[in-house]
Write a structure and sequence with these properties.
seven-stranded mixed sheet; alpha/beta; Spore Coat Polysaccharide Biosynthesis Protein SpsA, Chain A; single chain
Length: 337
């Protein structure tokens, strides 16, 4: 079966050593999509598997041209697999799901309906999980911290089952292990993010590919995101504030020694005095780092992309510098109709 027109849906499936589960998953996807009349394509991102995963995808492609496979030469991580899948997706909507059969393809139609009803992205919530406690307990803590720090109230940021409009994935730059924070990135880019309770099935084949390190890595990634989101364009606001605190602390302590000197007429060198001087020096260094950051920002500000534009009115002027921030004529046309 061949497909030359733009499909309604692209399914991006990152896979690492999932050769046993893929045939069943691809068949379930076919049945669901054909039953509901959904035109689709599947992109399986083989993230350096060693168990014949790509050969499984190759055989599936010979039987159904809607199934495609991309293989990395080595294991690059889930974020890299998703980013490459997003680059190659042709569908008007994109759904991501894991290859281990724990995500149910029967969720595809209701996810697409939520996109049709106005959501830009729908994140799955595995409300009932079939995982051991040592995976669910840290996950709940991670989700609570992320929701509090990012300002987006979701229950399950790390669920692999998500649906997007095409313009959402085109606006997101994934690297490292930032796949956990796709809802946060979409929210910060101004997209409407919804949540849906989805079925979580027990793993039938293989073992989990993630260990405890994902929680510490996730914490560091969250700190990185918060810093880049809030202070990339205004580093002096952060470093200057910290520097001001250190400087004021040092000045206050030295003023105390100065008052004591005036009252007693004697001044002795004490460790606290040295600490105050060091605090002032640290404060000055923090302010200097902030100023250097501002200088770098000023240097590269002209090459930064413009803010994303979600819609325009009919006949609105366009940019003549080739850097229009509109996300596509289709979005603008819908708003102007």
């Amino acid at each position: 079966m061949t497909q030359t027109t733009q499909p309604q849906l692209t399914l991006v499936i990152p896979a690492f050593n999932e050769s046993e589960s893929l045939p069943t998953l691809l068949e379930e996807i076919r049945v669901v999509c054909e039953t509901h009349g959904i035109t689709y394509e599947v992109i399986v991102m083989d993230d350096g598997s060693t168990d014949g995963t790509f050969e499984t995808v190759r055989k599936a492609n010979l039987l159904d041209a809607r199934v495609h496979g991309i293989r990395f030469r080595r294991n690059c991580g889930k974020a890299a697999a998703l980013a490459e899948g997003f680059r190659r997706a042709r569908g008007r909507s994109i759904i991501t799901m894991d290859a281990d059969l724990q995500d149910n393809p029967a969720e595809i139609p209701p996810l697409l309906k939520m996109l049709d009803d106005g959501a830009d992205m729908v994140s799955g919530w595995k409300k009932i999980r079939h995982d051991p406690w040592h995976k669910t307990a840290p996950s709940k803590l991670f989700n609570a911290v992320t929701a509090s720090a990012s300002g987006i109230k979701l229950h399950d940021f790390n669920c692999g089952l998500k649906a997007y409009r095409a313009e959402v994935v085109q606006s997101i730059d994934l690297y490292g292990e930032l796949h956990r924070y796709i809802p946060v990135l979409a929210h910060w880019n101004g997209f409407k993010v919804a949540e849906k309770v989805v079925e979580h099935r027990a793993r039938r084949f293989g073992i989990s590919k993630y260990g405890w390190a994902r929680f510490t890595n996730g914490l560091f990634d969250l700190v990185t995101l918060l810093f880049l989101h809030k202070y990339t364009r205004r580093p002096l606001h952060l470093f200057g504030f910290v520097g001001l605190l250190f400087t004021l602390l040092g000045v206050a302590v030295l003023l105390g020694f100065g008052v004591d000197w005036i009252m007693t007429g004697t001044l002795h060198l004490r460790p606290l005095m040295l600490a105050a001087v060091a605090s002032m020096l640290v404060g000055i260094q923090f302010v200097s780092i902030g100023l250097l950051g501002e200088m770098i920002n000023q240097r590269f500000a002209s090459s930064s992309p413009p803010p994303p534009i979600s819609a325009t009115t009919p006949g609105a002027p366009v940019c003549f510098d080739g850097l229009d921030g509109a996300e596509g004529s289709g979005t603008a046309a819908r708003a102007g109709s």
